[in-house]
Amino acid sequence: MADDILLSVRHLTHCFRLSKRQVLRAVDGISFDVQRGEIFGLVGESGSGKSTVARCVMNILRPTQGEILFNGVNVCDAAQRRANKKMLQTQRQIIFQDSASSLNPRMTAAEIIAEPMQINHITTPRGSCRAEAEFQLHYVGMDASYLDKYPPELSGGMRQRVAIARALSMEPELLVADEPIASLDVSIQAQIINLFKHLQEEHGFTFLFIAHDLAVVRYLCDRAAVLYHGKIVELAPTAELFSNPCHPYTKALLSAIPIPDPRKERARPLVKFDGKGLRGEGRLEEVSAGHLVWKEAET
Ligand SMILES: Nc1ncnc2c1ncn2[C@@H]1O[C@H](COP(=O)(O)OP(=O)(O)O)[C@@H](O)[C@H]1O
Ligand SMILES: [Mg+2]
């Protein structure tokens, strides 16, 4: 595996068994690589399988088929997982949409941030857990006055920052962010997005950034994949994806981004996607360098 690839998802399929006879193929044979230092976006409507991918990457769910390599370690293989337990526990962190609301209300910000270091027996480079927590808080734009605050005393945006600081305390290489801003006010969303951009540009973090909001993906991500019913229909550098969308579903999704100008907004055609050409077999074909588009197999 190339050295600059941090995460490699290969032919990943995940099925949920709904009943004795019914199986839901939530993720259907997808492949993508995340390069070190990039923000890779995974976009799609609700139910397209984004969180299922994230949970497979984090070993919260076991893939039905396929493999996931993180730092060259196959995380789907129990023996490899055991041999690299500490690396996997510290170097991959996830931030959920509701991370902020899942913080223990009886612990202070300092205790919350320090807890993973204690669980993983990590020696604190800055001398004490409190010093470490202060450092991490500072990192996410909060000062030491927040150290002794409890989650109910903080705003939603501040709580999400504490959740991010907690993830960062492990100094992970990869941050999986599953719709991390969806439950925040719009003004706070921008702050968190800018924080992610800062973390990437100044500190070299790698992100798997999951969103249904294309405007955010356009601003934040280097490359992005569009997910539809568990399949990647298009994958490209973000600028290319937005200037030259090729798959009808991507076009439909792009047409659904609100345009600030009300006249243009009214004149805009509403494209609906009927799933045509995505019900059978097919594969991703490269239309230009790094730009992959799903092509249905000829029958
Ligand atoms: N634990 C589960 N059991 C059964 N079906 C599930 C479960 N989790 C998710 N699903 C289904 O899998 C599909 C993909 O879900 P999810 O990955 O959460 O999508 P997204 O994050 O894009 O909204 C959806 O149809 C959802 O209803
Ligand atoms: Mg989800």
Please tell me about this protein's structure.
The protein has eleven helices and twelve strands. With 299 residues, the chain is of the alpha/beta class. The model has no long low-confidence stretch (mean pLDDT 91). The strands form two sheets. Strands 6-7-8-3-9-10-12-11 form an eight-stranded mixed sheet, sandwiched between helices. Strands 2-1-4-5 form a four-stranded antiparallel sheet, with helices on one face. The chain binds adenosine-5'-diphosphate and magnesium ion. Residues 16, 18, 24, 26, 44, 46-52 line the site of adenosine-5'-diphosphate. The site of magnesium ion has 4 residues, from helix 1.
